[in-house]
Amino acid sequence: MQMGFVMKKVFTYLSTFSVCLFCIWLVSLQLDSLIYHYYPSVSILSRGEEVTYEEVSDALTNLAEKENSLIAKTITETDDSGRTTTSYDVFGKGELPQGLVKADRLVASQANLAENYYVVKGNLDIKVVENVLQSLGLVDSYIYRPTLLNSLSLFLGRGAPSLGLIIFILTNLALTVVGQIVYLRSAGIEMLSGVRSWQIASRFLRVDGRDIALATGGALVFGLIAILILGWPMVYYRFVAIGIAFYACLLFFLSLSTSIGFMIALNISQLQKLIKGALPLKAIFAILLVGQCLAVCIISIGASRTLTYVGVLHTLTIGEKAWQERQDVFSLSLNREAFIADEAMAQQQRMAWSHVILESYAKNNVMLVQHHLRHNTIKEHTIIESSKEIPLERVLYVTPNYIQSEGGLYDFNQLEEIKQLGKGEIALLLPKSLQNDASVYQAYFEDMVGKLLADGEGSISLHSNVYYISDEKRWFIYNHTPINYEQFLQAPLIVVLSPESFEETSYFWENALPDFVFFKDKEMLEQLLDKYNLQNTIGSLLSSKQHYNTLRKNVQLEILMTLSPTILGIFTSILLFNTMNLLYFETFKREIAIKRIAGMGFIELHGSYLGEQVGSALIGMGLAMFMTKSVIVSLGVVVALLINSWMLLNNQAKREEKIQLSVLNGR
């Protein structure tokens, strides 16, 4: 009995501190966004009519001082290395909360107005702040009021923490119930001496409550010290504390539930059977069934997701050398300032982007490489004849300089023809295997691209020339998007477009900019952005290889986060099987000894017990296959767990046999 409760006590402390460390880790991954989930805020999603910084500053300062509050606006800056720093413009009297950095006045006056505005001090209603901003012309807005549920969703919304939490709960429940079942005999003796069942159950609850309180207090202090050492804003401590407190509440709820169940079991059981050690066999195997099913499901889900991300990482790694050779290519991201509610202003901005693209292209400073890999994700095809389909994930829209840089044409004269594309002309590069159907593809792309150039309003008549490329060549597609992770396309269908083909007010370039438009000369681009007053619409201007490296790091992090609960699940399953085996031999020690003396072998002795384990594992495998859609992974997990169970049972059986032989020999 003591062993079970000591194990549970140790587990309570270890798991609570593990939750604390995990919460700190998750906070470190979301440092720039956590403040959004702490203070009420109004997000300005796009620019409206002309409004100046001075107007916004004066209005918000007057409002904050009138309401004795403090308003802060986010200012995000990205340096050349890709590192993002966040500071805050302050409106009203007072200091920012500890850890939040105040922005330089000059930087604040030049920053975007389409940002998040927080009430960081005082009782000012965020709706009033929104009304003031809307009265100034910033009408496209969204209010967010953080709640406890929102804070919990930051942790439980991710797969890995949820799996880890389930594992902790499962282990705690198993240790609790097993310990109580073993204690039933002693409880029966206590009840004969006049102790009430509720007194015995409440003793368990008091011990658990004390351990949970001490573990929670220690974890909260540890979390506070960690936040202070790391130099993070104290507002982040709330999220660590919420995670720890939530786990403590779960543990206490489990303890309360099992204590009530234990009290009921004492009341309905016959004391004579309890005192003789007749333990409830059905309860034991119910624990085994539930534990094994959940272990199979959790480990299968974790293993399946880990293998998926390992495959993704391998796909990304294939493109590493190609990215290394193209480090001089840059791409940009747009911020909220780029999204304008007023149509006239939006049209002017589209014209400005068109001029930037045309002038950059004239100096060979911009390249379009637009893939359609999202269609690979949803397995979408376009039927162009009853017997033919176009796999849209293999279609590329590019500018002529992409063909020049990647090669792939059989004739130099063909490249020169493509470079001379003018308005109303496109080039179509098809794999040689599609040569017999070239006219069908030619007609389809002329119509589709004609609609694209017209922004969906009718169609522009186009003329296309068809060229042929090798089916074997793999084309690097400059992909740094999380839509799909492929780095090369084999036998693509390439549509070559000149920027001159687009209307000045086309939506195409704004939509393509973040992921598919690449620049070479950063200084020239910055001059053009300044020339056409677009610098405030830029979120970041980074090397495309930096975007690729960030994507790789995110995938590596997902592997780590998915692998950790999987490994934890394996250790938990071993703990469960060990505990069940100890309970099994404790319960049926006499019967097993008699059968062994009678000459029964391992299978005859433990066949029924193993059969229960196999049955529960198969149920778990069925659930895992339904959830993961992976037969091989689920089957592999079940086989591994059954082998582990067999080995643990065999080792325990040998130990028990040695003990019994020692007793029989008088040693």
From TrEMBL:
This protein's UniProt keywords = Membrane, Transmembrane, Transmembrane helix
Q: Which InterPro entries match?
A: Bacteriocin_ass
Protein name per Swiss-Prot or TrEMBL: Bacteriocin-associated integral membrane protein
TM segment ranges? 12-31, 163-184, 212-232, 244-269, 281-303, 559-585, 631-649
